[in-house]
Amino acid sequence: MRVLHTLSFSGFLLGATALLLPGRAQAVEAFAAQTGQPCSACHVGAFGPFLTPFGRAFKMGGYTMTGGTGIGAKIPLSAMFYGTYTDTQRGQSAPPAPHYGNNGNFAMDQINVFLAGGLTNHIGGFVQGTFDGIASQMYWDNTDVRLAYQGEVFGHSAIYGLSFNNAPGLSDPYNSTYPWGYPYVSSALNLSPIAGTLLDGALAGNAVGIDGYAFLNNHIYVDVGLYTTMTPGLLKALGEFYGPGATNQPAPYVRLAYEWDWGNNNAHIGGTFFHAAFNPASGDRTAYAGYGQDTYTDWMADAEWQYIGQTNTLTFDGHYNYETSHLGATTLLGGSTQAGNNLTDARATVTYFYQNTYGLSASWDSLWGNRNVGLYAAGTPDAGSVNGKPDTNSLMLEADWIPFGKSGSFWAPVANLKFGLQYTLFTKFNGGTANYDGYGRSAADNNTIFLYAWTIF
Question: Domain limits of the chain?
């Protein structure tokens, strides 16, 4: 992927992060100091990870743009943490984590440290280390280190390069895809649906990949990559676990998008293909060979429109992801009642910000798939599916206040702060509306109030 100097840089970033106390990477203040730009230049609402066109160009350009002054522009370090409060309509049958109650929980969810910035005119990136305050453990989080150039490709203007990262889609500059999509922060102490697609974080942190990408004529975005899961020893050292299993061979990732810009508007349509074959794995980082393999194929379409004015910002985005899987190995191991399965996830989100300070969001998410009583099993209070189906529908509403992050703001560009209030309403959960788990719990019992205070400096 890179020359030796570049590989040494990524190794230094990873090692230094581990020494510093290692969610998602968000608006990194080291980038604001490096560029001399306020957070609102790169991020809708003056807080990440929601990117503006300027922010997308900065990312595709390898995080190397400069312009800041002072000592802060030369220190590639940032820290982030957020605390939360979670309350569901009905308490869970058991505490969601040790040292927490069945409901009404305050938590210091995460403490993050970033090494982020440009090393040369062409090499830059970020490495995120995270301390999970709920699980009380450290792990290697999002990483995107790039070698990037600007020039011409076959006579067309282009930004192009290579990205070393640790999740399929992490290299993507658009917020209608999973790694950078809404919600940007959510509760770790409420109940989650029994199913999720492969692109929706199944390989986040437990795989590494190399992507080659190009943005041609300010319109066409192309990204092609290969991903493979890490070894059990490396997973353990980095505080990570296998997701669906250990890859049998590098998994191909292909991303295409077309972007328009006019006046204060920008929009894109795009598509993603991802295919992976696994030996299924257990929670102790053991992969089971000799049972065949499980294969997954995701086809996703996405789109986004943004209006960015001096006072008002409005965004619509969404995706539709259809996944097919053939779980031959999991079926032989007794974890699935059939090999052939499908899962679909559709999401639509609208976000409005006034003066990049006061925000409102609404997001509808629907997940559905075929019946599989082995894969979507009953028998677990709260979390099971009595009818063996994964179908879940939710509506999330959010109000935000971001007092800093604009040009001339107090603390700019040293720090930023965000307060958020979310309410999530479930109309279906794990295949049902009433008594979905067989123990009397309804989808509405999982309706959640979630408050958070989130700061980065």
Answer: 4-456
| pLDDT, position 168 | 97
- If you ran DSSP here, which 8-state letter would residue 196 be given? -
Q: How far is CA 153 from CA 217, 236, 329, 363, in A?
A: 10, 42, 44, 38
Q: Could you read off the pLDDT of 93-105 as tens digits, one per residue? A: 999 999 999 999 9
Q: Using an 8 Å Cβ cutoff, are 422 and 381 in contact?
A: no
Q: Is 325 exposed, middle or buried (0-12, 13-18, 19+ CB in 10 A)?
A: buried
Its pTM stands at 0.89
Q: Where are the alpha helices (DSSP H) in 183-254?
A: 232-237
Torsion sign over Cα 433, 437, 441, 446? negative
β-sheet bridge partners, residue 300: 272, 321
Q: Are 384 and 437 in contact (CB under 8 A)?
A: yes
SS3 helix, strand, coil % of the chain, rounded to 5?
Answer: 10, 45, 40
The answer to whether residues 115 and 144 touch, using CB atoms and an 8 Å cutoff, is no
Look at strands 220-229 and 340-354 and give their pairing: unpaired
What are 268-315's pLDDT values in tens digits? 999 999 999 999 998 788 999 889 999 999 999 999 999 999 899 999
What are the C-alpha distances in Å from 178 to residues 204, 209, 328, 420?
11, 16, 27, 20
Residue 325's DSSP bridge partners are: 296, 341
Integer Cα distance of 29 and 23 in angstroms: 17
Average predicted confidence (pLDDT) for the chain: 89
Q: Is the separation of the CB atoms in 401 and 418 below 8 Å?
A: yes
3-class SS of residue 43 = strand
User: Which DSSP string do the residues of 21-69 spell out, in sequence order?
Assistant: --------HHHHHHHT--HHHHBGGGSTT-B-HHHHHHHHTTS------
Q: Which two tokens stand for residue 224?
A: 């092609």
Length, in residues, of the chain: 457
The domain 4-456: what is its CATH number? 2.40.160.10
CB 402 within 8 Å of CB 420: no
SS3 72: helix
Q: According to DSSP H, which parts of 278-430 are helical?
A: 328-332
Instruction: Tell the burial category of 444 from Cβ atoms under 10 Å away from its Cβ (0-12, 13-18, 19+).
Output: middle
Nearest CA to 2 out of 143, 124, 156 is that of 124
Q: Place 340 in a pLDDT band, splitting at 50, 70 and 90.
A: very high
3-state secondary structure of 444: helix
Q: Among residues 232, 224, 313, 202, which one has the least CA distance to residue 271?
A: 224
